[in-house]
Amino acid sequence: MRLKPGLTLREMGRVNMIVDANAAQVNLTNVYSLNGIAADVWRHIGEQEFTIEQVVSYVCEEYEVDHDTASKDVAALIDEWTKFGLVINE
Question: What is the tally of structural domains in the chain?
């Protein structure tokens, strides 16, 4: 898996938003807000290919959360990003 190319994480005050950097005009219907942890995960993934297990390991280490909780949360997050077309399964 990888994040869809052309998407950029922007911080506007306390709000983290994903916008399409390739669009000539920003369509505000396609802007997604992220909480702080989701934004941190987005930054960590960057442009590299990733697996859910790699993200789970990162979340466990970074936030000192147990593996089961991290697995459920990361799976839900990646599922949501996939539904919105923010993640590409390769």
Answer: 1
Q: Are 47 and 54 in contact (CB under 8 A)?
A: no
Three-state secondary-structure class, residue 13: coil
By DSSP bridging, strand 7-12 and strand 2-3 are unpaired
| Cα angle, residue 63 at apex, residues 65 and 34 outer, rounded to 5° | 110
**What pTM value is reported for the model?**
0.87
Q: Look up the CATH number of the domain holding residue 17.
A: 1.10.10
HSE (side-chain half, CA atoms, 13 Å) at 89: 7
Reported confidence tier of residue 84, pLDDT bands at 50, 70, 90: very high
DSSP 3-state of 80: helix
Nearest to 76 by CA among 28, 23, 20, 35: 35
Q: Tokens 């990646």 — which residue?
A: 78
Host domain of residue 71: 2-88
pLDDT of residue 62: 96
